[in-house]
User: Fold this.
Amino acid sequence: MPTFAPTATDTETHCPYCAFQCGIRLSAAETGVVVAGNPTFPVNKGALCIKGFTASDTLGHPDRLLTPLIRNGGGTLEPASWDAALDRIGSGIRAVQERHGPDAVGVFGGGSLTNEKAYLLGKFARVGLRTRNIDYNGRFCMSSAAGAAIKALGVDRGLPFPVEDIARADVIVLVGSNPAETMPPLMQYFQAQRAAGGTLIVVDPRRTLTAQGATLHLRLTPGTDAALANGLLHLLVKQGAVDLDFVRDRTEGFEQLRGVLATYWPERVEKITGVSEALLVSAVALLAKARRPMVLTARGAEQQAQGVNNVLAFINLALALGRRGQPFAGFGTITGQGNGQGGREHGQKADQLPGYRKIDDPAARAHMAAVWQIPEHEIPGPGRSAYELLDDLGRDGGVRALLLIGSNPVVSAPRALHVEERLRSLDLLVVADFFLSETASLADVVLPSAQWAEEEGTMTNLEGRVILRRRAAEVPDGVRSDLEIIHGIAERLGRGEHFAYESAGDVFGELRRATAGGVADYSGITYEKIEAQQGVFWPCPSLDHEGTPRLFTEHFATPSGRARFHPVRHASPAEEPDAEYPLYLTTGRVLAQYQSGTQTRRVERLAKLSPEPLVEINPAAARRAGVADGALVTLVSRRGTAIARARLTRDIREDTVFVPFHWGGPSSINRLTNPALDPTSRMPEFKVCAVRIEAPPVRQGALSA
Ligand code: SF4
Assistant:
């Protein structure tokens, strides 16, 4: 069993989990490692949630992988030396590429990796493997928000302002987000906003903890977000409450939108969304008076096959309310994964080069070829998006060998049983992780990697603030960092000279050069500046630049400098309830678990709080299905089944059930979700599909089978 070996008595660093990236202090005490909130870090100001307080429990965990594993001829994973594991990977990749070409090897990354790792993984795919096929699990998280922000505002930075602005907004519309459970320290800003007389309108099919504290809760039918936004804007136009000066001076396209809005009269919107006309009118009355209005979206609206349009509809609302770019107003999106922001800026995406450059832009390619010291023609073109890459695994023309770092798609991908089947069909699956996740347990080679507190590197939080994660503990014997792992594989492929870095700081130095002049320009950011300023907001284009906490104060990042309205319409979800599958399924997170649960399910204090998935069912729907509170039920969609324990609550609509997605095996709810993709972002429709409940009996113990 590994022990926690601190590098210092106290280390100031950051929580390994969500995008709030709370500042923490790790201390070595006689009783073990103590985690406390860092009161001097200006984002969380000392507050932590239970996941942060227990974060160190993963460091010395007995499940920790401490040696590479190779699958033997009998199909069993058995311990191996690093040389044997890396040789196996090198020969496997060579064999696949010789037979099927460079694109037959793929890379799948994650939104929790540091900026340095995300950058290096993108470089490894293009320079080390020369494959176009790289994407990452952030595609399942932030891609719709990113797609909409780029279309409407010209740049994607989750919050284009510091979180403290939330406390100063007078009316906030919060769409598809439940920070009271998923990001509790963020709530201090909403609480300050309410204490100062502000109002909060929550849009969510569930009466979440956040919705319970709101001024108004608009409990819409899943998949009707764009109709709701259009309905609110219809009423604002009718009341003459649009900020016409702002629309004239700072935007374009409003006249085209007017025609679409005319068709979203309240009775029609009530019929589509299930939100009463009276509630719509009440919400608009609050918005019409707002002096500092703010609209925030999150996964509820974004993880849909209409995700980009949903976000565009809410950006339309924010733009029409005006005052965007002024302090304490505007539009933003609440990023989910720890490095959800930085992870999407530095080249892990199939169509992207570092600094948010496009891989099909000749100038961007020339710039990166110079940084990477390779001919421009060697940089491949765009590859497949995350689900499309997974869907094609093992097929002719698809990826035959996959390197996966920082992700667990067997639990987190939609239509998870199918994804598992595709992973099993690979010629070679290599997984680097610190626990044997559900995906790692399918691998041909497993590489034990270092954890958050054992490595240095930068993360970019939900505000676009680049922060420094300091190393607090020694890497256990037998374990290597992802930087070392990538270098080791590159060496086996004869490309080692491109990946010989001494430290994460060296990689960051190259990342700064790579992003210079790009949209997400980090060239003026150094580790020292991050420490001195408690983080640096990008863009930061020179060493004497302080960074950019607020975007859009003078102009937007579009070619015209104006924000763009988009005339979006409501479209039905890809799958709607019918006689066979009469309920909507929507999925999400709970307080004590995180993402695919690889880490948090192993933390005893968290597992006690949330040991198993609970399916929220309205008592009326439960009566119809013959389900009692606390019973195990089977949920069935066209793609699979999952078992969960019923929790009867009036906080969920009668036509909807909610299940968190943190568990694998028979209670993996992503076995049911629909991989219908948004046409722009390629985001799967995690938030809406049709299911039925099959009543008991389900045998006890089935959840852990
Ligand atoms: Fe903060 Fe998020 Fe960690 Fe909770 S999980 S302590 S909100 S960073």
